[in-house]
Amino acid sequence: MHINSTLVGGGVAEILRSLVPLMQEVESSPRWVVLEGNPEFFNTTKLFHNVMHNQPVNITGEMLESYLAIAQKNKQLVGEEAE
Fold first, then answer.
1. What is the rounded CA–CA span in Å between residue 17 and residue 39?
2. 48-69 burial code (b ≥16 CB/10 A, e <16)
3. Beta bridge partner(s), residue 32
4. Backbone region of residue 54 per phi and psi (left: phi > 0; alpha: psi in -120 to 50; beta: other values)
């Protein structure tokens, strides 16, 4: 399963746009789920990305709470595979 925040734009979407059809041709059953969320959710995910690249970030408790609430809703899009 591939999980991304957008269908177009950005490196991951560009890769998946080619990879998913290739996987389908070899009779794999790939899923590509696009997350739903508000701007604050996606800004927070960008901060998570930045911290993995050793950039200092400030993630507030409010941001984390909002992120977790929306992530819980997105879990329904992903289904049992998210467990």
1. 23
2. eeeeeeeeeeeeeeebeebbee
3. 2
4. left
- pLDDT the model gives residue 80: 66
Strands of the chain (E only): list them.
2-4, 32-34
Residue 39: Cβ within 10 Å count: 7
Q: Do 77 and 42 belong to one domain?
A: yes
- Count of domains for the chain: 2
Q: Is the dihedral of CA 75, 80, 82, 83 positive or negative?
A: positive
Instruction: Please give the average per-residue pLDDT across 24-44, as a whole number.
Output: 88
| Cα distances (Å, whole numbers) of residue 26 to 1, 12, 22 | 15, 21, 7
- Please tell me the pTM assigned to this model: 0.70
Kindly state whether residues 29 and 45 are assigned to the same domain. Answer: no
